[in-house]
Amino acid sequence: MTFTLDRFDLDAFVAATLAEDLGDHGDITSRATIPADARFAGVMDSREDVIVAGLPIAEAFFRTLDADVGIEILADEGARVGAGGDLMRLTGLARAMLTAERSALNTVQHLTGIATMTRRYVDAIAGTGATLLDTRKTIPGLRVLEKYATRMGGATNHRMRLDDAAMIKDNHVAVAGSVGEAVRRAVAAGIERIIVEVDRIDQIAPALDAGATHLLLDNMANDTLRDAVALVDGRVPTEASGGVRLDTIRAIAETGVDFISVGRLTQSAPAADIGLDFSPD
Fold first, then answer.
1. Where in this chain does the record put each Quinolinate phosphoribosyl transferase C-terminal domain (predicted)?
2. N or C: which end of the chain has fewer CB within 10 A?
3. Paired residues of 40 in beta bridges
4. Distances (CA, A) of 62 to 67, 97, 100
């Protein structure tokens, strides 16, 4: 099946991941113990309730090592699958399946874990009007995949790269001298999207007056968030950020902010409990 993501080379990812796992001499265990023509049938299933992400990438690992492998994907990306639900069926060369197994499972477990945690946060703010955002707090080299997984969980991607928008934070302000001056410099540079982090109410007016197009309300108490939303009065989008947890996100959403960004979606999501069982075919 075709699987494409902007700025993601699936073939290169699969090749690099397999090369990392194969080392210099390949899967010496499977080669020593399993005949070259032996065939397996396999089923990948979930041992817990999950939101699925990454099955087409798993398929690519198996097809790279056995072009004739039979694969049936049983769950759509972003679908909810209960404990015990089957995700994929495979039939093909036993050696190839065993060699690709760990790379395929690692990828699906990681991305499905992110998607599953993300959906819990999305469900927690349902009906409030707030939108969940991810962050750039991703594992180096995996940002495109991890942000894909948050989308499968129902979140919206925040900046993918530093050049997507300016984001003026406390260190930029410290060098520029003030929030207003930092924003003015970004405006003068011709930047259209200017996100400004503020952690005090008195920073809001200078940021807006200078040309901020989005305010990131950092680590504000809920009462302060309400005051900030009222002061902004819809002139630009507002985003709550900082220390957001599953047990606090709904109250934050109910302050009236437009967005809530959560770093732990990609920083702290546990791997999903997904297994792959084989039997002789």
1. 114-277
2. N
3. 92, 280
4. 8, 6, 6
Residue 24 falls inside a structural domain? yes
pLDDT digits (tens, 9 = 90+) for 54-105: 999 999 999 999 999 999 999 999 999 999 999 999 999 999 999 999 999 9
- The band of 1, judged by pLDDT with boundaries at 50, 70 and 90, is low
4 within a domain of the structure (yes/no):
no
Residues 22 and 104 grouped into a single domain? yes
pLDDT in tens, 212-243: 999 999 999 999 999 999 999 999 999 999 99
What's the CA angle centered on 220, arms 161 and 155, to 5 degrees? 40
Kind and range of the H or E element at 98? helix 94-124
Q: Kindly state whether residues 114 and 234 are assigned to the same domain.
A: no
Report yes or no on 5 lying in a domain: no
CB 10 within 8 A of CB 60: yes
| Structural domains counted in the chain | 2
Instruction: Kindly state whether residues 117 and 150 are assigned to the same domain.
Output: no
Which whole-number Å values give the CA distances from 273 to 52, 59, 83, in the listed order?
Answer: 11, 18, 9
Q: What is the CATH number of the domain that holds 110?
A: 3.90.1170.20
Residues that are catalytic: 102, 137, 169, 197, 218
| 68 and 16 both lie in a single domain | yes
Q: What is the pTM of this model?
A: 0.96
Q: Are residues 67 and 91 in the same domain?
A: yes
Range of the domain at 76: 10-122+269-280
> What 3-state DSSP class applies to 93?
strand
